[in-house]
Amino acid sequence: MQRRSFLKFAAFSTIAPSVIMAAGDHDNFVLDSKASASLNSKVKKMLEEIKSTNSYYTQSKGATFFEHFKDAQHPRATLIGCSDSRFQSDALDATAEDDVFTIRNIGNQYIVNEGSVEYGVHHLHTPLLIVMGHTRCGAIKAAMSDYSGETSSIRREVDHLSLPVRKYAGLTPDTQRWLAAVIENVNFQVKECMLRFNEEVKSGKLTIVGMVYDLANDMQKGYGKIVPVNLNGETSEQKLKYLSVLKPFFEA
Ligand SMILES: [Zn+2]
Predict the structure, then answer these.
(1) Each residue of 128-140: pLDDT tens digit?
(2) Domain spans of the chain?
(3) DSSP code at position 234
(4) Quick check: 208 pLDDT over 90?
(5) Centre of ligand 1 from the C-alpha of residue 137, in Å
(6) How far does residue 106's CA lie from ligand 1's centre (Å)?
(7) Helix, strand or coil, per DSSP, at residue 127
(8) pTM to 2 decimal places
(9) Could you tell me the distance, in angstroms and rounded to a whole number, from the CA of residue 131 to the centre of ligand 1?
(10) CA-CA distance, 84 to 114, in Å (whole number)?
(11) CA 136 to centroid of ligand 1, rounded, Å
(12) I need a surface site. Which of 8, 57, 60, 191 has the fewest CB within 10 A?
């Protein structure tokens, strides 16, 4: 139970508010109330783990670690990732604090949080913008299927994904089509970022990289591997694998 346990809390964030509201309604609310004893035991356990993980975290880091960045952040990368709990920053940066300015939403989309992305590029001046898709992405699968039954909020966000995966719509989302749609979406998001940050890319101030985090070994390069699929709009694997900055990703 380390830092990972804390990060996984994101997966529980949708149930936490109901507990908080209930606590506000009843001063003497107890976690073991009959109606949701099972749910609350999960929340209680998670909160215990957060406390314990955070104690370990603060003790192991020490004050000096925080002193370093308490007045300002100095990230080297802006990252647009999917909210999926199976992808976490540990996969790419052992110490992401003060290093990765992270924006996450369903389907790793630029347009959904364009203000946040612009903040990373224009205000924090990160020289690298990463669009990180991942295999087995539920948002991509939804965009390939009929999602008309979802709430308007979810529909609105999935609508943005419909464009890149349109050619796969209605087809059985088997593993290979699913992967192709994930890559298609990464390329689409990179394209949108290229349009927005065209000048920064042209002047060499910004490099935009599209990548796929493969949690299922669908790309046959190994579980958990990060595979580059796009660099400033270039999508040819034959070209990407010979670029010095990306070559190591294609080596065993
Ligand atoms: Zn996803």
Answers:
(1) 999 999 999 999 9
(2) 3-50, 73-250
(3) B
(4) yes
(5) 4
(6) 6
(7) coil
(8) 0.86
(9) 12
(10) 19
(11) 7
(12) 60
